[in-house]
Every structure is written in C-alpha cells, then in structure tokens.
Amino acid sequence: MKKTIRDFELTGKKVIIRCDFNVPLKDGKITDDNRIVESLKTINYALENGAKVVLMSHLGRVKSVEDKRKNSLKVVAERLGELLNKEVIFIPETRGNKLEEAISELNNGDVLLVENTRFEDLPNKLESGNDLGLATYWAKLGDIYINDAFGTCHRAHASNVGIASLIPSGIGFLVEKEIQMIGDVIANPDRPLTVILGGAKVSDKIGVIKNLVNVADYILIGGGMAFSFLNARGLEVGKSIVDEASLEFCKEILTNYPNKVILPVDVVCGKEVNEMAKATTKLINDMGTADIGLDIGPKTVLHFLQYLNKSNTVIWNGPVGVFEINQFSSGTKALANILANLDITTIIGGGDTAAAVINMGYKEAFTHISTGGGASLEMLEGVTLPGIEAITNR
C-alpha cells in the first residue's frame, strides 16, 4: 500500500502537490476545467490541515519558445483562484530566486502555483527526462510530496518520479480513486465483467487485450481496431483501418477465445472521412472494396447490449466510431446511453472516451470517468505505473 495525503501531518509543512492542469485552451481561454475541478479535493484537504501548498503541473507540449508563450499556467492560476475562492500566487518561473523567496514567505493555508513544469523541457528535456538535478532542486522546495496527477503516472518525469524518490511522498485523493476504480476493480471485479475496447489500432492495445482476456468475461471490440479482427477472419473490410502487423495476433485471439471476444455484426460506412461523407449501414459480410468502416451499426449495438445487460461491471476504453463526425457518432452515443442507464459499476477510460461521454452530457452518469488516457490504458494492461511505484510505501 502506498501512503496517501492522510498519512502526513501537514500543518506548517510545505506540501508540493503534482496536479494535472493540462486543460484544453482556445484563444488563451480554458474550454474545459474538469481537471482543475478534480484536483480541488486534495488541495482543499491540504489547506484545511494548515499546509503551505505548492502546486506543480504541465500544460501542453513544449518544444519551442512559441510553445512557452501559449502554454503558461497563468490562466489556470486565475481559474483555480475562482474555484478555491482565494488568491493563488502564480510564479511565472520553474526555478530561481523569485520562486524560492515566494515559497519561503508562504503562510499556512497559502497556495502557490509554479509555472509549467515542461518549460524545463526546452532545450534539454529535463522534466520529461526525469533529470536528477532538476528533481533535486524541486524536492528542496518542499517537505512532503503528493502526486495527484493520474494522467502523468505512466511517465517517469522529474516532477513526479523524481521528486517522489527524494522526499516523503504520498498520493492524493484523485490518484487514490483511480487506483481503486481501475486497479482494484480489475483485481476483484463484480462479475460478469465486460470490457469495451475501441480506438484505431490493435497494436496500441495488444497489452490490454493480453491481460484482459484472462480477466474479463467478455470483450466487445469496436472502433477502427475492429476491422483488423474482421480482416483476420477473412472478411472484406474495404479501405478501413487494418493494422497489418497485428493480424496474426488477432487470429490467435479469435482462435483461442471465440466466445469471449465479440465483434461487430454491422458497420456504418463512408467513402471518405469528413463531415460531408454519406453514411451507409452494411452487414459486415456486405462491405465493398471502397467502403471505410467508421462506426458500429444498430444491429451491433443490440448485439453488444445482450452482453451489457448481463454484466455487473463494464470498463470502456476507446470510442467505437469517429464520434467527432455526427453521422459516425451513433454507436458511441448509443453505448454511452445504455451504460448510463444500467445500475452497475461503469468505468470510462480517459482520453477520447472520457471526452466523448462528457461532451454528450453523461459526465455524472457513470461510476467513474478516468482523468488519464495513457495511464488508465497501462493500468488495464496490468503495468505498474512509475508515478505510483515511486511513492513511499506505508
């Protein structure tokens, strides 16, 4: 068991909390503050217990000076201050006298946000390369480190693995919830456990499939990856995405788990992938050489429903169609609606799946929506996440 924020005496301590404030921006404004909102429970706990709170996060990818100009966390500090109803001191630097002095002057209950940790990636990738010197510098700014950024736990960066390896550390409430809702559910699910897998390429989820065929009762496959499995069965899939390098793996899985891996029976096709494309529904045996499969069809939804109705736990990772285009979004919408109305444990993987169901108005409809796409995927693989592994054990 890893230590949590509850295991520490926080009063008067400088507590570094690694958050995930990697929010979407448009024209310099936050378009979705969900990740900031999700961090509030841990931040408020630290404040209520008299800590001097130092927040760290990344925002976007920083590969140029222009990236630094458009990815400042200043806008996050302003929104966080509104949500906390108190001033959030923002330091537009990742190191230096100004930062050190501001932290030294913090009073119990104060909040300070450090500039985007990935500014340290220019030019030498010190943050994403988990540079020991940078991690040591940041570690000296605090007394306790709390990792509450699940979305980065699958990466070994200076701001998570680095700091956690150098000072007493624990996890925050968000990371704790992710571990419980994904890791613990997979370890001891309320069966039957059904997993819905979507997305484009099989190769991205080979590890997940290898792990879950031994854990899940059923695996329902949609999205672009379904066409690799259908092709492996010898079916015509036209110009749909086919992961050629994974076809032998698909054949092996279908041979060894014929009653566990469930494929589409019809698909929504187009001749091109854009908003002007005409959508046509076809049975999988009727696809032509010019067809591109872009969504699961209504018969597949009903086919999947048979398995969902007898499940007690469902984990969904990956949209089952090109949901960003309206005429190819019906399958994803239908599954979201079905799961939202089932009285069972429903867990939504992060990334595109989370974005899809939230944008469709189902934010409060599921047991848990993960905040980390890559991290949740690796947890489904059964991989130990470095950002959690580095945390002090109880």
Description:
By secondary structure, the chain is an alpha/beta fold. The protein folds into two domains: 170 residues, Phosphoglycerate kinase, N-terminal domain (Rossmann fold), CATH 3.40.50.1260; 193 residues, 3-Layer(aba) Sandwich (Rossmann fold). It has a six-stranded parallel β-sheet, sandwiched between helices. Helix 12 links the parallel strand 15 and strand 16. Helix 11 packs parallel to helix 12. The longest helix has 15 residues. The mean pLDDT is 95.
Q: For the terminal residues, how far apart are their CA atoms?
A: 6 Å
Number of strands: 17
The CATH superfamily of the largest domain bears the name Phosphoglycerate kinase, N-terminal domain
Silhouette: elongated
Instruction: Note the main sheet.
Output: 6 strands, parallel
And the CATH topology of the largest domain?
Rossmann fold
Helical stretch tally:
15
Q: Please state the average pLDDT score.
A: 95
Spatial arrangement of strands, main beta sheet: 5-6-4-1-7-8
Low-confidence stretches: none
CATH class of the largest domain: Alpha Beta
Protein structure class: alpha/beta
Assign the CATH architecture of the largest domain: 3-Layer(aba) Sandwich
Cα-atom radius of gyration = 23 Å
Helix content: 25-40%
